[in-house]
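4.2 Preliminary Data

To establish feasibility before requesting continued support, the project team ran the inverse folding procedure on a target of 495 residues. The structure was first converted into the token representation described in Section 3, and no sequence information of any kind was made available to the design step. The complete token record follows.
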């Protein structure tokens, strides 16, 4: 039995509440230099049909040879999904005709996949996690690509992708909303990227999802599902689920029935439309590929791969909370990308110092991430090394600059001062905070003398103090120690 959605996730129809049920099949391209059964390159781009061996072109009499690296990647991914690893699996032929499939069949795994049941813990929000069951993960070949835009009267085929290894990862129908679906793909993608089993590049098609959507009244059995094919954007996956659920609810509330079919999402029109009626497994006449022996390995092979796995997002998030005392939200954001998490830790520990981990998190996730993002980069991809963020945080901690000046210094590190350490920038540009009360006092006296009317107002209404603080900060070029300014003003205005 599948879990029931919380009342807050139900959608309101004209005749009552409905529950969305989603399961996904994700095709993730295996990170490997060569293809699943041939030595041809898997490199993206390149001239059409440049990376095609006789096997990938489906020439008669060629024998596929399994690529051990792809097997290792599938096992590593399976371990990351806390899944059953099947030490014996079988490659089958999935027979169908399409011009981008010269073999006339896809080599896939049907009854005996390399990876069985597992799970993904999905972070839907900082305070909500759900468990999505994994049904299986199997290895299979990708197909080629038809090119319809090269000639007015014919189509061409590019076989560069033909035979590239894919992991098809099938979830159980445990997802109950578009939001959960987006979070599931985000988490699965993060796990695969941490492991290095798939680069997760959705624009290049390295990770694409077929989304099965159905609706039902709460507590009723599963409804008839429709499969939305080939989604390669997390945002669009969310949209597609919402519009497809609405479409199905409309039909059911009008007394109709849902046809099980494959549909396409059109982001321009914000709708899904029928592509073909759903084919069943028997339409493909699966049978074990006679050219390939069953795939077998021993437990030592699995154990060696397990020993080599990196720390995965869930473990890292838990460690960031316990080791650095970070709030779950911060920890969750920082571990989203392995490179970001590594960058953050390097900032905390740079130079062997113990920094306030929360303050560092604020800078890495806040102003620094915003500047990196504006440059179209992740935090670990900019020219700024962790030691410089550490330096900036230290300057604030030592009282050399205020947080406000630190923002300016950081902006300079992305413009005129790309090659300088914050300490040098502050020194050279004279940005040190003024803590000399004499200098601050002079500025305070001047502002008070010039604004007698405001002084009267402030005495009646102490919140006016903020205006004075602003004036003094302005007069000192933002360099006055804000605490000292506040204290002096309070004393002099008698508020
Ligand atoms: Mn598939």
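Position-by-position output of the design step:
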């Amino acid at each position: 039995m599948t879990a029931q959605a919380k009342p807050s996730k139900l959608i309101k129809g004209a005749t009552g509440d409905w529950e969305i049920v989603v399961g996904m099949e994700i095709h993730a391209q295996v990170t490997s230099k060569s293809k699943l059964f041939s030595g041809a390159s898997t490199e993206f781009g390149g001239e059409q049909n440049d990376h095609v061996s006789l096997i990938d072109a489906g020439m008669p009499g060629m024998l596929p040879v399994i690529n051990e690296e792809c097997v290792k990647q599938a096992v590593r991914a399976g371990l990351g999904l806390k899944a059953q690893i099947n030490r014996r699996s079988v490659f089958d032929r999935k027979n169908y005709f399409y011009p981008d499939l010269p073999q006339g069949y896809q080599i896939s795994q049907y009854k005996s996949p390399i990876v069985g049941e597992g799970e993904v813990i999905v972070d839907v929000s900082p305070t909500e996690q759900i468990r999505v069951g994994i049904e299986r993960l199997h290895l299979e070949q990708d197909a080629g690509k038809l090119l319809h835009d090269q000639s007015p009267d014919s189509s061409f085929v590019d076989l560069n992708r033909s035979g590239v290894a894919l992991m098809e990862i099938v979830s159980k129908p445990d997802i109950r909303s578009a939001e959960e679906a987006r979070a599931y793909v985000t988490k699965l993608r993060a796990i695969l990227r941490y492991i290095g089993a798939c680069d997760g590049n959705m624009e290049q098609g390295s990770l694409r999802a077929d989304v099965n959507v159905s609706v039902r009244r709460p507590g009723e059995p599963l409804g008839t599902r429709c499969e939305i094919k080939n989604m390669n954007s997390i945002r669009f996956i969310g949209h597609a689920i919402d519009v497809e659920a609405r479409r199905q609810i409309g039909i059911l509330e009008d007394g109709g029935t849902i046809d099980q079919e494959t549909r396409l999402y059109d982001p321009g029109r914000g709708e899904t439309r029928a592509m073909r009626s759903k084919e069943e497994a028997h339409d493909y006449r699966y049978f074990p590929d006679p050219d390939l022996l069953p795939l077998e390995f021993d437990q030592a092979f699995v154990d060696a791969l397990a020993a080599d796995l990196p720390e995965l997002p869930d473990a890292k998030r838990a460690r960031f909370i316990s080791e650095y005392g970070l709030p779950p939200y911060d920890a969750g954001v920082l571990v989203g990308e392995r490179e970001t998490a590594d960058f953050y830790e390097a900032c905390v520990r740079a130079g062997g110092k113990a920094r306030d981990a929360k303050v560092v998190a604020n800078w890495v996730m806040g102003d620094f991430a915003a500047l990196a993002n504006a440059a179209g980069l992740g935090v670990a991809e900019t020219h700024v090394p962790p030691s410089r963020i550490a330096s900036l945080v230290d300057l604030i901690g030592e009282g050399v600059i205020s947080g406000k000046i630190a923002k300016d210094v950081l902006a300079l590190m992305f413009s005129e001062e790309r090659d300088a350490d914050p300490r040098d920038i502050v020194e050279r540009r004279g940005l040190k905070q003024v803590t000399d009360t004499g200098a601050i006092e002079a500025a305070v006296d001047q502002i008070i003398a010039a604004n007698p009317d405001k002084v009267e107002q402030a005495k009646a209404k102490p919140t006016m103090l903020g205006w004075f603080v602003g004036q003094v900060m302005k007069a000192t070029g933002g360099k006055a120690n804000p605490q000292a300014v506040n204290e002096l003003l309070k004393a002099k205005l008698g508020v």
